[in-house]
Amino acid sequence: MKTETTRQGKPRSNATVNRYLSILSHLFSIACNDWGWTTDNPIKRVSKLKEPSGRVRYLSENERDRLLGACRDSQSDSIYLIVLLALSTGMRRGEILGLTWGDINTDAGLITIPDSKNGEVRSVPIVGEVSLLLAERAKIRRFDTWLIFPSTLKREGEVKPLLLRASWEKVLAEAGIKDFHFHDLRHTAGSHLAMSGASEREIQEILGHRTTQMTKRYIHLIQEHTRGVIERMTKAFNMES
């Protein structure tokens, strides 16, 4: 499995191998416990491969302002709101592009994500400009689909979500931002939550992490924020004394 290559001819990653092992282990467990086809799960004796730590690339304030400026100037009427949603809620690209008008509750100021990556329903708050832009978009929504960000093309008679790649790559180029993926907007949201003083639990709930393992990548930012607060407090004490 590890020596195989992907369809693109690239080496298969350790993370992919581990996912395959997990699936095989689950199948063997069902065959053993539920169906009685075997008495053993041999995958349990196979050690999982070491996975590299997750990528954490987030926008600086200057990069963020440049990116949002390029999105505002874009010919796409969706890219600015999509990027703003990613930055303010930490939602994944698939979650955003799959949003329907039934997922939006403007009165409560909430977006409900019925089919998140971890398989659980979660809600995220929408405030400020995001809420206003969604309300404006609702006034000119298309009535052949419930999608908030529909494609202009229909495939097999069905309206599909917007294809974002071309617009995304164009705004990145215009903003002069390199080595940045759309998913890094989610890291940017998590990083800003940490630097704004959000707790580990709060970040986990907003980003929809099933465990704290993914959330821990932002802990050093929380610690830096806390250190800064204490330093400012100490300086204030010294001035008063």
What keywords describe this structure?
5 strands, globular, single chain, 241 residues, two-stranded antiparallel sheet, 8% strand, three-stranded antiparallel β-sheet, mainly alpha, 2 domains, 9 helices, hpI Integrase, Chain A
Per-chain topology:
Elements: H1 14-33, H2 61-73, H3 79-89, H4 93-97, E1 104-105, E2 110-113, E3 122-125, H5 128-139, E4 150-155, E5 158-161, H6 165-175, H7 184-195, H8 200-207, H9 219-240
Antiparallel strand pairs: 1-2, 2-3, 4-5
Helix pairs in contact: 2-3, 2-6, 3-7
Q: Give helix and strand order, one letter per element, not per position.
A: HHHHEEEHEEHHHH
Second-tier CATH architecture of the largest domain:
Orthogonal Bundle
Strand content: 5-15%
The CATH topology assignment of the largest domain is hpI Integrase, Chain A
Indicate the mean pLDDT: 82
Helix content: 40-55%
Terminus-to-terminus distance: 67 Å
Radius of gyration: 22 Å
Overall, the morphology is globular
Q: What's the count of strands?
A: 5
CATH superfamily of the largest domain: Intergrase catalytic core
Low-confidence stretches: none
Largest sheet: 3 strands, antiparallel
Question: Into how many domains do the coordinates divide?
Answer: 2
Structure in words:
The structure is a single chain. The longest helix has 22 residues, at about 220-240. Strands 1-2-3 form a three-stranded antiparallel sheet. Strands 4-5 form a two-stranded antiparallel ribbon. α2 (about 60-75) packs antiparallel against α3 (about 80-90). By secondary structure, the protein is mainly alpha-helical. The chain starts with 13 loop residues before the first helix and ends with a helix. It has two domains: about 1-50, no CATH class; about 60-180, Intergrase catalytic core (hpI Integrase, Chain A, Orthogonal Bundle), CATH 1.10.443.10. It has helices at about 15-35, 60-75, 80-90, 95, 130-140, 165-175, 185-195, 200-205, 220-240, and strands spanning about 105, 110-115, 120-125, 150-155, 160.
